[in-house]
Design brief:
The structure holds 2 protein chains of 2 kinds. Chain A is mostly helical. Chain A is built from 5 helices and 1 strand; from the N terminus they run ααααβα. Helix content of chain A is 82%, strand content 2%. A 7-stranded mixed sheet of chain B has the order 3-2-1-4-6-5-7, sandwiched between helices. In chain B, strand 1, helix 1 and strand 2 form a beta-alpha-beta unit. Classes of the chains: A mainly alpha, B alpha/beta.
């Protein structure tokens, strides 16, 4: 095993453990990353594997295959993040709305007060 | 005048115009709820002598969010109807009675600039073109074929108030209202309203390129 394989494997394992820790209670998310980790680790340990799969899928080189998957994965991640942001925005709106409602100023009495005090 | 009609005015960084418009509505004996959507300088200072209800978002959320806040507050006050009114002086208070009386036979009355020739002649040509496209977009997304799109002047009766819940914080709420009319099976009518474009309102109003943003918001809301 060459040095680069060891380095990449180390970072893979590290980020894999981090993700599993962060995604507590998200079974779907954890499964998604477990599959990703296994695929990644296999590609690192058996460099020819990506080329073989690439040939089966009609892509010339293994690196191309990995790049294509990366692009798709990247867009999926961005989309998931946007969805998450919108959920947060919705919650934020609810909180701020409650705050606004609680601090509402009812100034309608001002008119009545003004009318009852003709001196003003 | 029915005591339980409230005029909701969302505002964001409005100047003197706001006070003038609110005063005009108060002179006509309407109950006014001003929702400040996180303006840099809170307009409360210039409004505090006026007998109004005042709410403030501490950060800017968008016009849709401000309208929803105003409506929820109005519901707490026992409102039977709510009018959405622009802060920049584009809408004419003299159209309000027509909107309110339209509520007698429908749940929601929508203002339209395109029902009377003298009204639509006031709309600048490019804006007219854009609004024509926007109503096609509205039709695609909601199935409602209207003569106008994104006219912020509308009246909601008790049934509409009960079920309309705006989640689009920004300008796409105008289309969201239409799709909720459809989902909840609310009856609606268009009412001719005049529009008054001043240099101030044009400067404050929507830029044409922002319509792309609205379109993207709509698509995102459909899929996410």
């Amino acid at each position: 095993m060459s040095l680069i394989q060891l380095i990449i494997l180390f970072f893979l394992v590290f980020s894999f453990l981090m993700v599993l820790l962060v995604m507590k209670g998200h079974l779907a998310g954890r499964l998604f990353f477990i599959v990703q980790f296994i695929t990644g680790a296999l590609f690192v340990v058996f460099p020819d594997l990506s080329s073989q799969i690439g040939r089966v899928l009609g892509v010339g080189r293994g690196t191309d295959l990995v790049l294509y998957f990366l692009v798709v994965l990247f867009y999926m991640t961005v989309l998931l993040f946007i969805a998450a942001m919108r959920r947060i925005e919705r919650r934020q709106t609810i909180i701020l709305r409650q705050l606004a409602l609680q601090n509402a100023i009812d100034n309608t009495k001002a008119r009545i007060a003004g009318r009852s005090a003709p001196g003003q | 005048m029915s005591p339980n009609v409230f005029i909701v005015i969302p505002c964001y960084n409005e100047g003197e115009v706001l006070k003038r418009n609110v005063q005009e509505l108060l002179d006509l004996d309407y109950q006014v709820i001003v929702v400040d959507d996180g303006s840099a300088v809170a307009p409360w200072e210039q409004l505090k002598e006026l007998p109004i209800h005042f709410l403030r978002h501490c950060i800017n959320l968008g016009q849709g969010a401000a309208l929803q806040t105003g409506m929820e507050y109005a519901k707490k006050l026992g409102a039977e109807a709510v009018i959405h009114f622009d802060a920049d002086g584009q809408h004419s208070p003299s159209d309000i009675p027509a909107l309110i009386s339209a509520l007698k036979d429908c749940d929601i009355a929508l203002g339209s600039r395109f029902l009377r020739r003298e009204d639509w002649l006031k709309v600048p040509f490019m804006k007219r073109l854009l609004l024509r496209c926007a109503r096609v977009v509205n039709f695609v997304f909601t199935g409602l074929w209207l003569s106008d799109a994104h006219n912020g002047f509308r009246a909601l009766g008790p049934r509409a108030l009960g079920c309309i819940d705006l989640t689009e914080n920004r300008m796409a709420h105008a289309t969201e209202i239409l799709s909720q009319i459809k989902t909840h099976g609310l009856s609606w009518r268009e009412v001719p309203t005049t529009i008054c474009y001043t240099s101030y309102s044009r400067q404050k109003g929507q830029k044409w390129y922002n319509s792309f943003n609205i379109l993207i918001d709509l698509i995102l809301n459909k899929i996410l």
